[in-house]
Amino acid sequence: MGASTLSFMALLTLLLIVSNVQCNPNYGEALAKSLLFFQGQRSGRIPQDQQITWRSNSGLYDGHQANVDLSGGYYDAGDNVKFNFPMAFTTTMLSWGTLEYGKRMGPHIKEARTAIRWATDYLMKCATSSPGKLYVGVGDPNVDHKCWERPEDMDTSRTVYWVSSKNPGSDVAAETAAALAAASIVFRKVDPTYSKMLLRTAQNVYQFALQYQGSYSDSLGSAACPFYCSYSGFKDELLWGAAWLFRATNGVKYYNLVKSLGYDDQPDIFSWDNKYAGAHVLLSRRALLNGDKNFEQYNQEAENFICKILPNSPSSSTQYTQGGLMFKLPDSNLQYVTSITFLLTTYSKYMAATKHTFNCGNIVVTPNTIRSVAKRQVDYILGENPLRMSYMVGYGPNFPKRIHHRGSSLPSVTVHPQSIGCQEGFNPFFHSMNPNPNTLVGAIVGGPNQNDGFPDVRDDYSHSEPATYINGALVGPLAYFAGFY
């Protein structure tokens, strides 16, 4: 073989390598940006190492109405309210992602822990500030949603909401317990003292959820609904919380609770509201990785769920757009896509470790079957779709420019030091067709409609609003694929 043939072969190999690299999005970059997004959602005193520099201190006096310090935590989406129910779910998912995929995060594991701790520091205050009470939110959503102002300028009522024995909230309490328990495992080796504090608080909050049963939607009324109504009830959170406490403690008490809470629900969704599928996948780990036959029923539950998701499964109840995106519900569909994708990558990882397969009807499902569906969802979000639009802000050449987000759409305090009042933000900023002045790097928006269309307009909140729980669930899959490819 001559030198020219060799050089041609070398060139061909190089071209193949380059083309393969271009086939996959840069998952590592997307992972870093997905974590950076949480800095843009911070409430409280902004630290000196803040990288999203257009944000400043806000909500420093949160809790003062109740004579407690409830500063910190995250604004849930594009508004200035702290809703603990979705915030706790976000924290649980960030923690689960870090536990499953921390080794694939490389240097980003530090940012993942920081994002988790920003939430858990706040959730701990909510759980321990007043005996007999669990604080579950700050800011009147009905008042806040009538304003368009920066968090730094908030002049709306920072009403404090809580649940108690007389006004129970088993759903929000058990989700808070799940978040603290999951985070306690994340910090077990790096900060044992903090980990023990998280676990102790998780156990107390869970006991409260169990002892005083009821839905927080019933207790809080218009402060919870229609924003974050607990439509699925609270039994799923009780199961989810017990499952996380069992994973954190290996205690017989939580094992018995898991068993007594049942597993008869057959969901085809997973979200901040409905946790059954997440609990089933979490519990199936014991059967698949530890060979514990007592947990085989959860394998079956997890696999029934996956059969409802896979596009070619005879029992599938999941729509897909022509461009290949899972489509569950028209409002903020990507929240379901990212949460379900997390369960797909995680179960495929468990399966691969044990060479496990299962059947959906006459279709044999391998780890690769599930992984490829999950990868398609992640790639779609990152720009491999009919519009060539990345639904992660600041990632790729084409991404949403007019997101429904107050801080992003209004000039920052450094550029415009004068206060912008409640109504002043609507004109000219909210109604402007100009791109947002501040880029909320890493934010994943609600996403396209069922026809793969995306108008990119600020007032279309069901498609253009980012949310912590959309991002929180995708961190794990991004780390998984960053390590895989």
TrEMBL record:
Its EC number is 3.2.1.4. One of its GO terms (biological process) is cellulose catabolic process. Residues 27-477 form the Glycoside hydrolase family domain. The active site is at H404. InterPro entries: 6-hairpin_glycosidase_sf, 6hp_glycosidase-like_sf, Glyco_hydro_9, Glyco_hydro_9_His_AS. Coiled coil: none annotated. GO terms for molecular function: cellulase activity. Gene3D superfamilies: 1.50.10.10. Keywords: Carbohydrate metabolism, Cellulose degradation, Glycosidase, Hydrolase, Polysaccharide degradation, Signal. It catalyses: Endohydrolysis of (1->4)-beta-D-glucosidic linkages in cellulose, lichenin and cereal beta-D-glucans. Residues 1-23 form the signal peptide. The keyword Signal applies. Belongs to the glycosyl hydrolase 9 (cellulase E) family. This is Endoglucanase. It comes from Lupinus angustifolius (Narrow-leaved blue lupine).
